[in-house]
C-alpha cells in the first residue's frame, strides 16, 4: 500500500494537524516508510511462539485482591477547599 499526497492530507486533517502543502510530500514519504516497516514485521513467522511480557522469564508482581475503603479519605480531603462530613462540598448550581 502506498500513501499519496491526497491521503496524507486526509490523515493530517483527521488527526487535526495542520500541514503546509510543501510538507505533504515528506509526510507521505514518512507514512510510506512506516507502512513498509509494518509489512516487514508481518513477514516474521510467529507460529507457535507464546506472547511474553518480558525478555527474561519472571512473574508479574501482584497485590492481594482485597476490597478496602482505601483508608485515604482524610488525605484526599486535606486539599479540598471545602469538605463536609467526609465529602467534597461544592456550590449549589440548581435551584
From TrEMBL:
<protein>
    <recommendedName>
        <fullName>Aspartyl/glutamyl-tRNA(Asn/Gln) amidotransferase subunit C</fullName>
        <ecNumber>6.3.5.-</ecNumber>
    </recommendedName>
</protein>
<keyword id="KW-0808">Transferase</keyword>
<keyword id="KW-0067">ATP-binding</keyword>
<dbReference type="InterPro" id="IPR036113">
    <property type="entry name" value="Asp/Glu-ADT_sf_sub_c"/>
</dbReference>
<dbReference type="GO" id="GO:0050566">
    <property type="term" value="F:asparaginyl-tRNA synthase (glutamine-hydrolyzing) activity"/>
</dbReference>
<dbReference type="GO" id="GO:0005524">
    <property type="term" value="F:ATP binding"/>
</dbReference>
<dbReference type="GO" id="GO:0050567">
    <property type="term" value="F:glutaminyl-tRNA synthase (glutamine-hydrolyzing) activity"/>
</dbReference>
<dbReference type="GO" id="GO:0006450">
    <property type="term" value="P:regulation of translational fidelity"/>
</dbReference>
<dbReference type="GO" id="GO:0070681">
    <property type="term" value="P:glutaminyl-tRNAGln biosynthesis via transamidation"/>
</dbReference>
<comment type="similarity">
    <text>Belongs to the GatC family.</text>
</comment>
<dbReference type="Pfam" id="PF02686">
    <property type="entry name" value="GatC"/>
</dbReference>
<comment type="subunit">
    <text>Heterotrimer of A, B and C subunits.</text>
</comment>
<comment type="function">
    <text>Allows the formation of correctly charged Asn-tRNA(Asn) or Gln-tRNA(Gln) through the transamidation of misacylated Asp-tRNA(Asn) or Glu-tRNA(Gln) in organisms which lack either or both of asparaginyl-tRNA or glutaminyl-tRNA synthetases. The reaction takes place in the presence of glutamine and ATP through an activated phospho-Asp-tRNA(Asn) or phospho-Glu-tRNA(Gln).</text>
</comment>
<keyword id="KW-0648">Protein biosynthesis</keyword>
<dbReference type="InterPro" id="IPR003837">
    <property type="entry name" value="GatC"/>
</dbReference>
<keyword id="KW-0547">Nucleotide-binding</keyword>
<keyword id="KW-0436">Ligase</keyword>
<dbReference type="GO" id="GO:0016740">
    <property type="term" value="F:transferase activity"/>
</dbReference>
<dbReference type="GO" id="GO:0006412">
    <property type="term" value="P:translation"/>
</dbReference>
Amino acid at each position: 500500500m502506498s500513501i499519496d499526497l491526497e491521503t496524507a492530507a486526509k490523515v493530517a486533517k483527521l488527526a487535526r494537524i495542520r500541514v503546509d502543502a510543501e510538507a505533504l510530500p515528506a509526510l507521505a514519504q514518512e507514512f510510506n516508510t512506516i507502512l513498509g516497516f509494518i509489512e516487514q514485521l508481518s513477514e516474521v513467522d510467529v507460529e507457535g511462539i507464546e506472547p511474553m511480557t518480558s525478555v527474561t522469564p519472571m512473574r508479574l508482581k501482584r497485590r492481594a485482591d482485597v476490597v478496602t475503603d482505601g483508608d485515604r479519605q482524610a488525605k484526599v480531603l486535606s486539599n479540598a477547599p471545602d469538605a463536609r462530613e467526609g465529602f467534597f462540598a461544592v456550590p449549589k448550581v440548581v435551584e
